[in-house]
Every structure is written in C-alpha cells, then in structure tokens.
Amino acid sequence: MSRRLGTLGGVVILILAAGATVAEAAEPDWGGTWQSGPATTFPQAFSRFDGAYNPGDGLVYLLGGRLADGNTDGSVWTFNPATGVYADTGVDMPTPISNYTINVLTDATGTGFYVFCGRTNAGTQTFGVQVYYPATNTASQLAPADDYPGDASHSCTSALNVVIGNQAYVAGGFDGTNNNEQTWVFDPMASSGSRWTRIASADLAQARAYIMGATVDGRIYGIGGAYYDATSTICGQLLCNVTTVETLDPTAPTPSWTTLASLPEECSSARAWGFDSTSLYQDPVDLTPLAGRIVTGCGWWPNAVSSVYAYDVTGNTWEAFPSFITARRDQAGELLPLASDPGIWVWGGYDGTGVNTTTAESFSLRVVPVELQSLTVE
Predict the structure, then answer these.
(1) Total H helices, total E strands in the chain
(2) pTM of model > 0.85
(3) Residue 23 is inside which H or E element, if any?
(4) Which tens digit of pLDDT belongs to each residue from 85-142?
(5) Environment class of residue 69 by beta-carbon count within 10 Å: exposed (0-12), middle (13-18) or buried (19+)?
(6) Whole-number Å distance between alpha carbons of 360 and 226
(7) Total count of domains within the chain
(8) CATH of the domain at 30
(9) What tens digit of pLDDT does each residue of 198-214 get?
(10) Could you tell me the pLDDT band of residue 378, with boundaries at 50, 70 and 90?
C-alpha cells in the first residue's frame, strides 16, 4: 500500500512499557500474528488490484481487478472494517484495469484515488490516468494530454507508486515485453498537459516492475520486483524475481536511486507499508516499535508465498516478520489507522492454486498509550 505513510505524529518512544529496558526494546521479536478477516464477496475474486482507505466515511475502496478467468472487472467496491461488509458502489472505472496501485491525491475537485496505466480487459496496456472520488462516488479519466508520457518500450503498468507531498512518484513498469527503468512524478494540481515530470537522474539500477513501494521520512524505497526474460534462460521462467532494494531521496539536488541491503529472498508482486520515525505503532504483543521500519509481503511470480519481511531503515537490515495465513501475490493492501483497531490489511490476490483467493487478513497494531508518549530515554 504503499504509497501512503503509515504513521501517527508524535515523539519516538524508546521506553515501551513500565520496566522495559533499552535492550529489550531494540530486540524485535514480532509476537503478533495475522488474523483472518471477512472473505471478499465480489462476484469473482480479484487479483492484481489495490485498496485505499477513506477517513471521511471509514471505508476501504477497491477499484476492480483481474478475474480468475483472465478478464478484468472495473467495478468499484467498498469494504467496511467496522461491519466486515463488502458493497458494490454501482460505479465502474472508465477503463477497467488490473496491475495498478492506488494513489491518494488532492486535486481541484477534492480527494481522489488515482491509478496510472494498467492492463486492460483486452490484454493491452493503457497509458491513461483515471481517478475515483469517494465523496461523490464518481470516476473519470483525464484527458489524453495527461496520459503517462511513455513510449513503445516504457509503460507504467505494474510500476512502483508512492505519494509524498501530494505528488505521486512512479518508477519502473512493464508492458508485457519491455521493462521500464524511468522515474516520473505526477502533480494533480498542475495544469493539464504539464502534470508529469521525469527525474532524469533517477533511473532504476535494474529496469523492472511489480516493485513493492514504501516511504519512510520522505524517502522512497523500491523493494524487490521482477524483470522480463523472453528466452527464460536467466532464471528458467519469463519473469525473474529479484532481491534488489533501492532508495531515493526526492529532495536531493540530483535525485538518484541507491542500492541497499538485499531482500532475504526473491520477492515481487506484493504490498509494502512504511512507518516514519515518529510513528507510534507497535507490535501488539511484544511492543516492538514499527517506527523507522517497512513491512512488506513477498509475492513471488508465478507462485505465491506467505513470507513477510521487516526492514530497519537505520540499520539497513532485514528480518522475518510473521507470515501470512494464506500464501498470496498480487493482493490489495492498506494500513487502516482506525482508533479502535489499527492494522495492516490484505485482500484477495492469487494463492498459487490456480485461482484467486477470497481470503482477507489483518495484522493488528498497538498505539503507544498516551501516558507514555512523552517518555524518552537519554
């Protein structure tokens, strides 16, 4: 998911509970576990799709996706975490797509859920930009002048998408044959025809797609992904999954991607969540802080895996995080900052059995109690 900062403002907490020591707080154990959520009730289970939380009505919006029969459904559905109910909004995206990530942006109309490029029902690629507005339950496609500025070998389908400062950063992509290395920025407040800007200095070290994207403290992290091998000689299959991890500081004078510690295994086609250093979220059992960390699924085309990993941005280290109940890839994901039960959620995706899964699951998070939020350790 993402894409959106999974944080709450506040002071970084080093004392996690009365009697806790610094050594204990620094030793991540991840005592929490994923719990089954209400199964999706779409007419057919979706994969290669995404969800976005709208605090205005407390609902998660899912903008259609790939069906098990290979077709694409563009119907917009909601999930109510308070009731566990899924509902069809009655609205379809103008061009039904799969292989997208939702970007929550504010434009002249209000809060919009933006999606870029994507694979159409015909199996072709679109460069179109579409937006769904939850406040009015309407969807539209921007004018062709605002299409992703790709070309015959550069598509933003299955690209990394993250949002910082009301701008979407889009890196990589795949059109079924060609991998993309470019990084572009989309500004929803710019005039039509000038909303895209390329960061020419920020080509990915390895052209690829299906990258898990996250942000921490204003930095972008591109985690894993896969690249196309037409001959299947490099890794024995058409898509080669990678362990590559890169980071980008978009505020640098000349932004460029820097390679970080590799993933513990090859991963692609999943979702990631970043937590700023000021985040007050903790593991619900052992109180390990999420601050300054990224949690990511692993995916792995063409199969599915249950692996989940956590990355420490300060230490540049990876470790195992509690695994999903159901092995999956190409799932929707979102962090729900609910006061009653905040947590990371995933829905659907492909489970490796030849069909899409209807399962959903969540990892509950604890918020540092108010009475401890001003405590620090010298």
Answers:
(1) 1, 32
(2) yes
(3) helix 22-25
(4) 999 999 999 999 999 999 999 999 999 999 999 999 999 999 999 999 999 999 999 9
(5) exposed
(6) 25
(7) 1
(8) 2.120.10.80
(9) 999 999 999 999 999 99
(10) very low
Would you say how long the chain is, in residues? 378
Give which of 186, 159, 185, 191 is closest to 174, Cα–Cα. Answer: 159
378: three-class secondary structure by DSSP? coil
Q: Are 242 and 224 contacting, i.e. CB atoms less than 8 angstroms apart?
A: yes
pLDDT tens for 252-279 read 999 999 999 999 999 999 999 999 999 9
Is residue 74 a part of any domain in this protein? yes
Q: Is position 27 within any domain?
A: yes
Cα–Cα nearest to 359, from 29, 45, 125, 2: 45
Domain that holds residue 252: 22-372
**What end-to-end distance do the CA atoms of the chain give, in Å?**
34
DSSP class of residue 174?
B
Q: Which two tokens stand for residue 64?
A: 């259609």
Helix (H, G, I), strand (E, B) or coil at 145: helix
Distance CA 361, CA 334 (A): 11
Helices in 80-204 by DSSP H: which ranges? none
* 334 falls within a domain: yes
Domain presence at residue 1:
no
